[in-house]
Fold:
Amino acid sequence: MAGKEPVIEVKNLYKIYKVGQNKVRALNGVDMTIYRGEFCSIVGTSGSGKSTMLNMLAGLEKPTKGTIKVAGQHIEKLSENQLVKFRREKVGFIFQSFNLLGTMNAVENVALPLSFRGVPKKVRLKKASEMLDLVGLKTQKKHRPNQMSGGQQQRVGVARALVVNPEIIFADEPTGNLDSHTSAEVMELMRKVVTEQNKTLVMVTHDNHLATFADRIFHIIDGKIVKVEERDHSRDMKISEAATVEELLQKSAMEDIIEPDASETEEAKKPEEALETLRQKEIQQVEQP
Amino acid sequence: MRFSDLIRMSAGNLWRRKLRTILTVLGVVIGTASIIVMVSIGIGQNRSLMMAIEESGSLTSVQVYNWGRGSGEDQLLLNDSMLEDFLAIEHVESVSPRLNFNVVMKQGAYICEWLQLIGVDRATLEKIPLGEGRLPDKDAESLEFVVGNTVITNFYNEKTQEYYWETQKIPEVDFMNQPLFTIFDRDSYYQSQSGQGESPKKYLLQASGMVEGDINTWNQYSYGVYCDIDALKATLKKIFRNKVIPGQPTQKNGKPYSEFCYEEVFVNVDKMDHVQDVLSAIQEIGFEAYSDAEYVESMQQQSRTTQLVLGGIGAVSLFVAAIGIANTMMMSIYERTKEIGVLKVLGCAMGNIRTLFLMEAAFIGFIGGLVGIILSYAVSFLINKVAGNAMGNYYYYGSSVEASISYIPPWLALAALGFAVLIGIISGFLPALRAMKLSPLAAIRNE
Structure:
């Protein structure tokens, strides 16, 4: 990784929680460097400190000791107001439970972070619309979160993280609420985004298999990084390069219909809608020679 | 964040919880309306009072009486030279003396043994609202006068001894078309009634006009018989040549003064603010003086107190509404902990989050205030319609003013709206601070 520009530099990071009389070391001296354009995953069991790590990198929590330099800025010294500004300008965030605002449709949700920057409505809706095209949600732009499947919602989440053109994207168990099929798709989408848009993505997960989608995998146990794994994705990248966004979209649309999302947090797709999509699919197939 | 986006977002949040918003707004509506209506009642009364007084024009005048005169070494005489002194006082614009003289008047079988002729100056005469006829002519050969519309009830039938207050029969006296026998020297008249001395000379006088209204209506000129003061003086001088005019003070040696003394004098002041100064200046000279301004001030004080009390009662319900707003906002923040966390993680500035919630609270206040204003105009209209009809018209100072029990001036409506918004913001302040300080980690936590 020599010669690459570091985006995140963490040195000697400690986080100690007080639980009653006891002190819990959530992070116990962590050093790590993440470079521009990398897809990193931090993997560990629950209680290993991986979430604390992510919170600290994103400036949601303050470290007890140590330094964090993100995009050239020492964020451990920033005030809460400055941290908000830092997140607004440098960071995109993908949540486990999607966290879309229920009152807004897909485009408005994606445009939301832009509104915090004071971008005029027309401009930000246009940009958000482009982002939804990119993540393959061309037809659901006006749908509310409760009208979308979990996979679709997380695509909106990805689009929302991307729309501000951030230096780094943080993803906190982005597939934790999705079934394995949809998870794979979302992971595929995130990989695509990282390579095509040359973004830095840091993902936290407890799933060793999902972690393998990353370029580098940090294994964290009891607040310490015990192993850093590097994976070469050049071979499977060829496959993903071959797949166009449209094909990805079609694939996911098919799966959404054939295997409705079983996740309890989502509403099942409305049957009329499913029928409508099926019908369109048939028309497409007939038209194709 | 742009202001338009803040407004859109906070309005959207309220819209999302329609029922709760409506209930909270309802509290503000009732609170605002009760304050407006309560205060409007106080204002309405004050306004009727002020209108009545303004109409009579007595707000800027000081009444000077000449009581306890006629004896003592250093007696004060309210005569023309004293009037000059009054005019010399700062801020005094004009003086208007009154000369009262009691006469006996007769027409046909009807007589009035105690009728007061009031001599006033031209300016005062011209204020009298005339029902028919004209004002007395100053240079008429015999004294002319304007008769108050209820004066007729003072006459009684000399033969049957029937009084109006017994029979309710209006005496058959025609002021306008028939002359009246008038006796100026009442002492001689009474002596002759009891058989001593010869009856005094009678003069034939003719009324020139009547004050407007019938015997059942009332204004400040209804009871009097008004004539020109100079004409009255001239007439009296002619009748009581070289004699003491009844009612006028005498010198120690029993001789009359060369000048007339007045019963009372109205001193007109340029501005209401200066009335008090003039009043005390006159009192310093040694006269009894009185001003409506004093009375009005105490009335206003009283009505201010009433307004405060009434407004206070209304304020209690607005206070309850304020607690309702705070409660609603607090609930909504608890519900939206996660959402607020998401906003913060996505980079929504802390100040924006605070503004967002303050706006929601202000919206509740604004909508409540607006509807409250509409409601209070409706209630005010009803009060005036129902209670106003029941009470009829008020009479203050003899002039009638259309009754308006409740009056909502535009400033009151605007102030109430502002107040409702302010109450909303104040009650939303703590919840908003709380929302601002919520941890962004709430967004990460997965329940």
Observations:
- Chain A touches chain B at residues 51, 55, 58, 60-61, 80-81, 84-85, 87-89, 91, 93, 95-97, 99, 101, 103, 112-113, 115-118, 120-121, 160, 164, 172-173, 176 (CB under 8 Å).
